[in-house]
Amino acid sequence: MKVIDYKLNADLVRINVVEDESDLPEFHRFVEANHNALGFDTETDGLSWWEDGFRIRLAQFGNAYESYVLPTERGGQFQEDVIKAVGWVKKLVMQNGTYDILCMDRVWGVKAETVFPRLLDSRIIAHLVDSRGRKDGGIGHSLEELTRHYLSAAVADEVKGSMTAIAKELRVKKAEVWPLIPLEHEGFNLYAGMDPVLAYRLAKLLKPKIPATARKLLAYEHELAAVCAYMVRKGIKADVPYVRDRANELARTEVHFKEVAARLGLENINSPKQVGEAIVARGITITGRTPTGQPKVDDHLLKAHIDDPLCEAIYQGKKAAKAKSTWFDNALNNRDSDDRLHAAINSMGARTARMSISGAIPAQTFPSGDSLVRRGFIADEGMSICAVDYKAQELRVLAALSGDKAMKKAFREGTDLHQITADSAGVDRSTGKMAGFLTVYGGGWAALASQAGVSEETARRAIDGFFAAFPRVKEYSEELQKEARRNGYITTITGRRLLVDRQRPYAALNYAVQSASRDVTGRAIIRLFEAGYGPFMLLPVHDEVIFQFPSEHALAATTKAAQIMKETMSGVLIDTDVSVYGKSWGCGYMAKGQYCDLCDIIHQEEK
DNA sequence: TCGTGACGCACC
DNA sequence: AAACGGTGCGTCACGA
Questions:
Q1: Which of A116, A325, A429, A473 has its CA 20 to 30 A from that of A292?
Q2: Is the minimum distance from the CB of A287 to strand B below 7 Å?
Q3: Which architecture, in CATH terms, is A2-210?
């Protein structure tokens, strides 16, 4: 046994590094003495846990004062004893436990279902205490950020710095250090050994800080994280030939337009500076400015001058390059050995707790107008991709939360809400629609004018018209702002405390609506799981859930799922829509008349 | 060389 | 009176 003593403020923390099998009895005694609750963490090869040959190099258990580091990479008794301890400890305190649980499931075959019920996640607790990231003026939710704020800045610096120093020592990039570092490296052992201690301490310290109204969310958030992890574990099959074809096609497009740009004297289409200069040189005036005062070169400008060959080349070239790398290369590079892709779902991503879906399946950014990207995701043999989405989820939630009579009535009777706004304001429907959405986002007439491309006067009329049609919405927003000014935070309908910036009280309405909507989807995901839909759920995307069902039962099963997902909030039905796509996710996004080579049919309906 | 901020763009 | 909310990611440009 190697012992490292470390000072955390006034406390001494002892890190015991298991070196050979004769050290294991002492580890057993430690686990037995602490079997009610222990901090836990692993150190792995990297982040791509789905790759063959991926290793869990170290596993660490600890309480507030002591930890044990075990070299699981050496397999045998070390790995076996860690698996036993993981199965035995009543409460496992982890920082972002989803990651370690997925690793253990994949690498060791420790079923995630056996670990999640005993997880206490310090990140979930921290989010319920203060949902803001560091950039938003909060503490943040990473182990380093939480340690720095709640425990010790010195320890945060040292632990973070230690891996940077080791990378330097080994002459590799920081991201490459994990598979290379020797298991017995003392700095690595220290870094590893402190993690479960910090997670354990943070959970203990932060749990009492959860606002009383939000305490009931703790169990729910852990369940939700678990169901999301099960979806991540399963993954979605990629249609590799399709994805490869698109990547190659986009590469050709990119090369072509880069050559066009080069002939016209522009070296780098991705450099905003170069692009700006080149466009001005062609006699085009750039009026827009970025927040830092630079000439604004964006989609809007390029589209306005799409007749200019250089503008067209920049626009098309950039678009192709971005699409290729973000969606197609990403998919090809992150497949597992069965050509499945595994998203990273952060079940409490945003400050409103809205989930984020990123990594190998950045579903949040998939183009919604066509099948280009979604076509690359296919159902398993004999299955069909299906989806249930909420109809105008945020507006229905707004109706429920505000209690606006007219808005509730519109949803009850199925009348067109945006037309009501349009009629009230004397504007066209699309402007009325934008006024509604923009109001939920806290926007005003100026934003509407620039976004909808209408005059300031029309924009003012549209916003006024929206509030005239739905007067309770304005009152509700004002009530929330008052609450935010008084307390510095609002409490959502589910009891979540959301801090509101003093300078932006108008954001309170959006927070309330966005967060309540997220919880509508979150509760639905748990109901689906409890009803036995777990094996068929593939991915949540904000206001929808993607499934695959056996093709012969697809419509019936999706319809049943849609029933389960529906709920009534303050008398407003948060209604759902059913979609049965086909063999690929893209089948639902195909244009009318477009032929689908997978399903071997011509699509009749436009999305 | 690496990390980070700025920017732009894909979404809900 | 007015106020554009929330993400992830790729690239460039800059500074430690």
A1: A325
A2: no
A3: 2-Layer Sandwich (3.30)
Would you tell me which CATH number, out of the four given (3.40.190.10, 3.90.1150.10, 3.30.70.370, 3.40.50.970), belongs to the domain A345-391+518-602?
A: 3.30.70.370
CATH number for the region A241-341 comes to 1.20.1060.10
Per-residue flag: A368 CB under 7 A of strand B = yes
Q: Are A347 and A221 in contact (CB under 8 A)?
A: yes
Could you tell me which of A320, A43, A386 has the C-alpha nearest to residue A183?
A43
Nucleotide with the nearest C1' to A329 CA: C10
Length, in residues, of chain A? 607
The reported pLDDT for the residue numbered A605 is 63
Those residues with Cβ within 8 angstroms of residue A227's Cβ, 6 or more apart along the chain or in another chain: A525, A526, A529, A534, A537
CB-proximal positions of chain B, under 7 Å? 1-3, 6-12
**Domain range list for chain A:** 2-210, 241-341, 345-391+518-602, 395-516
DSSP A591: P
Question: How many Å apart are A353 CA and B5 C1'?
Answer: 25
Cβ of A298 near strand B (distance < 7 A): yes
pTM over 0.85? The answer is yes
Residue range A421-460, pLDDT digits in tens:
999 999 999 999 999 999 998 889 999 998 888 999 999 9
How far apart are the two ends of chain A, measured CA to CA in Å? 64
H helix or E strand, kind and range, residue A46: none
- The percent helix, strand, coil of chain A (3-state, each to 5) is 55, 15, 30
Closest nt to residue A463, judged CA to C1'? C2
A2-210 and A395-516 share one fold: no
C chain positions with any atom within 7 Å of a protein CB: 2-13
Which nucleotide, over all strands, has the C1' atom closest to the CA of A390?
A: B12
For the stretch A167-197, pLDDT in tens is: 888 888 877 888 989 999 998 999 899 999 9
- How does DSSP assign A443-504, residue by residue? --HHHHHHHHT--HHHHHHHHHHHHHHSHHHHHHHHHHHHHHHHHSEEE-TTS-EEE--TT-
Q: If one looks up domain A395-516 in CATH, what number appears?
A: 1.10.150.20
At residue A607, the pLDDT reads 42
